[in-house]
Automatic annotation (TrEMBL):
Biased composition annotated in UniProt, kind: Polar residues: 55-66, 152-162
Superkingdom: Bacteria
Protein name, UniProt field: Secreted protein
Signal peptide segment: none
Positions of region (Disordered): 1-168
Composition bias type Low complexity, residue spans: 1-35, 81-90, 127-136
Source organism of this protein record: Kitasatospora saccharophila
Lineage: Bacteria, Bacillati, Actinomycetota, Actinomycetes, Kitasatosporales
Amino acid sequence: MTVPPAAASTPAAAPTAAPTTSGAGAGKTPAKSSGTVKAAAGTKCTDRVDYAGDSRSNAEINSIGETTGTCPAPQGGGATAGTPKKSGTKCTDQLDYTGDTRPNAEINSIGDSTGTCPAPQGGGATAGTPKKSGTKCTDQLDYTGDTRPNAEINSIGDSTGTCPPVKR
């Protein structure tokens, strides 16, 4: 049996990776390639692309988008930064955003659309008291009057290394 010449000389096509539609970047415009997301009039780049973990301020990012007409690519982790959002839990109930100037609705909207809670900005992640090794935050500080459950307070301390400020 002979193999037709066209089939014998044509190499098989290499598989290509398709963009993912689940995980941290789900629901957001993919931001892997620099400057490919067009800035839309009246829509901030920070509302179109996940900049969690980017050290630049929202104002700087949006200014770049307005000036160039293209949203800048995230720096410092971008779409993969942040904490996975727990199903049925708001990001503002999952992480300590004390000191973050963004409204809770904006923070929770980012979590809902990306599946990842954005990193706290403006000192939120480090506000509070350093957690002592082997000691629960609720044993280290007086949280009387704080409406959060002790487990949530201690979880924040365990994950950040900082006991959150008391919320009254």
